[in-house]
Automatic annotation (TrEMBL):
Keyword field contains Cell division: no
Top-rank taxon: Eukaryota
Protein name (database record): Cadherin domain-containing protein
Organism ancestry: Eukaryota, Metazoa, Chordata, Craniata, Vertebrata
Keywords: Calcium, Glycoprotein, Membrane, Repeat, Transmembrane, Transmembrane helix
SUPFAM superfamilies with a match to the protein in the record: Cadherin-like (SSF49313)
GO biological process: homophilic cell adhesion via plasma membrane adhesion molecules
PANTHER family xref list: CADHERIN-87A, PROTOCADHERIN BETA-1
Domain Cadherin: 3-104, 105-209, 210-314, 315-424, 439-537
InterPro entries: Cadherin-like_dom, Cadherin-like_sf, Cadherin_C, Cadherin_CS, Protocadherin/Cadherin-CA
TM helices/strands, residue ranges: 551-572
Topology in membrane: Single-pass membrane protein
């Protein structure tokens, strides 16, 4: 953008506004300038018909001679949440106005010219400067006024301002010539200076300077008073024109001192510093006492050689680097950089890890520094939960003799990653049976059943936990606080609700991707808490009902099989004994007895028959076998009469 330098404050320059695809409050709402400056501000608003405008307002008059360009950033901000912004660069070029007249470097220029100077000799040069630019700063020179008729002996170059002779001068005719020179710029502004030309008698021999010795380069650690050069001067003129004086121009570190006769020494007078000045250009001027004096200059170029007197300097006082946990080995996390003001080998910097402080502390084995470029690497994966930051000291050493070094602290911060799932503290999720929460049947909506407590080893948003009801016997009966983990009743308990309610709570963190854990718990809906011990035994019996019933059935089958085997063995034994009795004795009513025994055997009648009562319940913690008294069978009447009429002579066995 082009702005004239003399524009009035308050001038406005329209700008093209930023475009935002959003509408309403999400569109562009404000503009600002960064960094703020004293020259410009931004104006943004709406006109009568609602059309928005954006203008750059000049707050202070510009001066191209003070600042030719102004640059800043224009920032457009919308009203969204979060707000977004866009930036463009504004470059202001200040256009020059011819507001500065030429200025001569001197009000009076004085020149001397030998009377035997040839035609075309330069007498002197006048110099004028104009702070304007372009055509407004182009200067032309011309003679404005000549005292007497001397102007015919001089000519001035309109571009360079050099004043030359157009013919030889005569000292006897005029000792001085006074000229008036006008400098005019392209805009018509001008300035005038006076030029005084003195014609002097001829002194046509300049001094001569002969160098005897010269030392360069010079080490920067030389002591003051060291001789750098030795030279002699002479002049072939005689009298005052042959008297020579020497001077050293504008030097604080060197000086001239007379040695003997016409010899001079160039010596150091202060400590040298190559990093401050690597080369000195010394100009020695030898001038005679003639009128005008003649001079000779000799230039000595003194190079300063480097000495390792500067330690490396880091570009920061300390470094902070970041690495995500679970990083890959040998990952690059940053770099340190140091520079050395020396040159050559004295400036070659190598990097290394400085020994740990105190010395007995073990060195850090997980960080490495490239010795050539200062790149910092992490050698092994880090765990944020074990170490959150590491501090090491990095040393930068040069290759001088002896080497100099500097240390800097590097702080490595481990950035947390979501690598730890939530851990449920309550209710405990170990292998032991989960405890049950007791809920009265009279509980209303909002009743606090329990609270799930969980923690996450991560930090920041990775450790923000939320709770969700994953599964439930009756999902409509319970609600879980997303942030608190509180399990509450969503509605009142009814008689139709199951007595035992099982819930699975999902605990999820806020990482990307999120990790989760589940908490299983149960709740018993009771009419009252008078039999508070019942939930534990009932819960255990119900949880283990299937396995207990299985065990009882297996036991019953085993006992029944054992009983049947015993019964079969007993019956077999009895049958064998009765066959023996039948062979030994002839009894009265044998047919009746055999039929009675056969009927008894066929019916499975035993001497002692037992009846078992089995009580198996799923609601109690034990089962009982009730053993009843034996049932003695009655013998048939015909067997009883036989025993009364004919008792056997002997009995081989008695029934037990």
């Amino acid at each position: 953008m082009l702005v004239p330098e003399r524009s009035d404050p308050g001038s406005r320059f329209p700008l093209e506004g930023a475009r935002d695809l959003d509408v309403g409050s999400n569109g562009v709402q404000a503009y600002s300038i960064a960094p703020e400056n004293e020259y410009f501000s931004v104006s943004f608003g709406s006109r009568i018909k609602g059309k928005k405008y954006l203008e750059l307002v000049l707050e202070k008059a510009l001066d191209r001679e003070e600042q030719a360009e102004v640059g800043f950033s224009l920032i457009a901000m919308d009203g969204g949440a979060p707000p977004r912004n866009g930036t463009t660069q504004i470059h202001i070029v200040v256009l020059d106005v011819n507001d500065n007249a030429p200025i001569f470097t001197e009000e009076l220029y004085t020149g001397q010219v030998l009377e035997n100077s040839p035609e075309g000799s330069v007498v002197l040069s006048v110099v004028a400067t104009d702070q304007d630019a372009g055509p407004n700063g182009d200067i032309t020179y011309e003679f404005s006024q000549v005292v007497g008729q001397s102007h015919s002996a001089f000519v001035i170059d309109p571009v360079s301002g050099e004043i030359r002779l157009t013919k030889p001068l005569d000292f006897e005719a005029a000792e001085t010539h006074e000229l008036s020179v006008r400098a005019t710029d392209g805009g018509g502004l001008s300035a005038i200076c006076r030029v005084l030309v003195e014609v002097v008698d001829v002194n046509d021999n300049a001094p001569e300077l002969m160098v005897s010795s010269f030392s360069s380069p010079l080490p920067e650690n030389v002591l003051p008073g060291t001789v750098v050069a030795l030279f002699a001067v002479k002049d072939r003129d005689a009298g005052a024109n042959g008297k020579i004086s020497c001077a050293l121009e504008d030097q604080l570190s060197f000086s001239l001192r007379p040695a003997y006769k016409n010899y001079y020494e160039l010596v150091t007078v202060s400590v040298l510093d190559r990093e401050e000045t690597a080369r000195y250009i010394l100009t020695v001027t030898a001038a005679d006492a003639g009128s005008p004096p003649l001079t000779t200059t000799q230039t000595f170029t003194v190079d300063i050689s480097d000495v390792n007197d500067n330690a490396p300097v880091f570009n920061q006082t300390s470094y902070t680097m970041y690495v995500h946990e679970n990083n890959v080995p040998t990952v690059l996390v940053g770099a340190v950089s140091a520079s050395d003001a020396d040159v050559g080998p004295n400036a070659k910097v190598t990097y290394s890890l400085a020994p740990a402080q105190p010395a007995e502390q073990p060195p850090c084995s997980c960080i490495s520094v490239n010795s050539e470029n200062g790149h910092v690497f992490v050698l092994r994966p880090l765990d944020y939960e074990r170490v959150r930051q590491i501090e090491v000291s990095v040393s930068a050493s040069d290759a001088g003799s002896p080497p100099l070094s500097a240390n800097v602290t590097v702080r490595l911060l481990v950035v947390d990653e979501n690598d730890n799932a939530p851990l449920v503290l309550y209710p405990a999720q170990d292998s032991s049976p989960a405890s049950s929460e007791l809920v009265p049947m009279s509980a209303e909506a909002g009743y606090l059943v329990t609270k799930v407590v969980a923690v996450d080893a991560d930090s920041g948003q990775n450790s923000w936990l939320s709770y969700h009801l994953l599964r439930a016997t009756d999902p409509g009966l319970f609600a879980v606080g997303a942030q608190s983990g509180e399990v509450r009743l969503r509605r009142p308990v009814t008689e139709r609700d199951a007595v035992k309610q099982k819930l699975v709570i999902l605990v999820r963190d806020n990482g990307r991707p999120p990790l989760s854990a589940t908490a299983a718990l149960s709740a018993l809906l009771l009419k009252d808490f008078s039999d508070v011990r019942l939930p534990h035994s009932s819960l255990a019996a119900e949880d283990e009902g299937g396995s207990l019933t299985t065990y009882l059935i297996i036991s019953l089958v085993f006992v029944s099989l054992l009983f049947l085997v015993s019964t079969a063995a007993f019956v077999t034994r009895k049958v064998c004994k009765r066959k023996e009795l039948k062979g030994e004795h002839v009894l009265y009513g044998t047919g009746h007895l055999q039929s009675g025994l056969a009927d008894a055997a066929a019916a499975g009648t035993l001497p002692h028959t037992y009846c078992y009562e089995i009580s198996l319940t799923t609601g109690s913690g034990n089962s009982e076998f009730k053993f009843l008294k034996p049932i003695v069978p009655s013998l048939p009447p015909h067997l009883n009469s036989y025993e009364r009429l004919s008792p056997p002579p002997k009995q081989p066995n008695k029934r037990k």
